[in-house]
Amino acid sequence: MTSSSASATEIPVIDPSTIVPRLAELIVGFGANVQPGQTVAVGAEFGKEKLVREITGAAYRRGAKFVDVTYIDPWIKRQRVLHADPETLDQYPSWYGEKMLALGEQRCARIALTGSTEPHLLDDLDSTLVGREQSAPRKESMQVVNDRLTNWSAVPCPTPSWAQLVFPELPVEEALAKLWQQLAWICRLDSDDPIAAWGERMAQLERASNALGEHRFDALHFTGPGTDLTVGLLPSSHFVFAAFSTADGIPHMPNVPSEEVFTSPDPLRVDGVVRATKPLFTNGSLIEDLEVEFSGGKVVRIDASKNADALRALVARDEGAARLGEVALVDGQGRVGATDTIYFDTLLDENAASHIALGAAYSFTVDDDDKAKVNTSQIHVDFMIGSDDVTVAGLSRDGAEVPVLVGGSWRI
Fold it and tell me: Of 88, 251, 302, 324, which is most buried, counting CB atoms within 10 Å of its CB?
């Protein structure tokens, strides 16, 4: 399992007392770009209260009308998996979805904190049941995202248990301090002006997405150890990067950090085998040594050394769950890969390596003529398939093959 960096970069020490408040300001003022008069919805697991409080203060200083904080207790998920009727695990109250739709209708801002507070909490449970459990309104969330109704962003928040998972060789306090330092550097808090630093990186990604668009590839071909996968693209599939704008014109950066360019593929034209280059932590389960086979666009085999049943359960959620909704390319110039660390958090790991996502597509990455063709699903599960050993080529409509990413470097 490798990142897109051959070796770890030496990370400068950042004053620990400044990291949380500066991160809060970055996520509020740049990531979600909270506007005066907006309601702001913040979601986080227990254990992240310090950053949540700083985010709340930053939002009110920006002129937020109200900050609505929802804390999630992972132990509640455990109790549901243990004791609820298995046939009801994929159901949730209607008002969960109604709240998400209301956030869109009222043009609210949304902020989410990622990173597990209890990464081993569900290890002893039936992974099929863990994969089946759903309490987040994913269908409604994707509707709000695709309709561009809210300015939103997600950012990782280190916790002791998560830090111990990432750095098991260190005492917990040292592990937590190291994770915070890496996150601060990844988010460019070492700069006097992090927003300007992100602007420079976004300019690089814009050039890459424009170059991909000029080629108008028919498909992408991934090859590497255990991987020989062809992902077809729709006629109007165009690559975008994380410089989003709402339907009302509010710019925002949905993930901090973000180092990818991505698009929605043709869900009917995915064939071959792909081996994940990093572990996948999703829906409470850690899936390791993942290998997935596609035929005619659909998943036909899922193998893993650990918790394969959890992903199989997710893929069985609906018809679209077994097809692709996203293909993303990540070069070796980003900071996440430069740390040479596996974070067991999709928001970070997907920005160190090219990846694909099972489930719902982002319909704004295709033109109106193709919107009905993109994949729809209740799930959206990214897993990482890129490394220095994985080559990405673009296939033109006349059959020519053009190198795109080789050794983590753009070739277009």
Answer: 324
For residues 350 and 4, the answer to whether their CB atoms sit within 8 Å is: no
Burial of residue 101 (number of CB atoms within 10 Å: 0-12, 13-18, 19+):
middle
pLDDT at 7: 55
Q: Which fold has domain 16-186?
A: Thermophilic metalloprotease-like (3.40.1830)
Q: pTM (2 decimals)?
A: 0.91
* Per-residue pLDDT, 248: 96
Distance CA 312, CA 306 (A): 12
Q: Where are the domains of the chain?
A: 16-186, 194-410
Q: Which residues in 139-159 are b (16+ Cβ under 10 Å) and which e?
A: bbbbbbbbebbbbbbbbbbbb
Q: How far is CA 144 from CA 149, 296, 330, in A?
A: 6, 29, 26
As a three-state string, the secondary structure of 321-365 is HHCEEEEEEECCCCHHHHCCCCCCCHHHHCCCCCEEEEECCCHHH
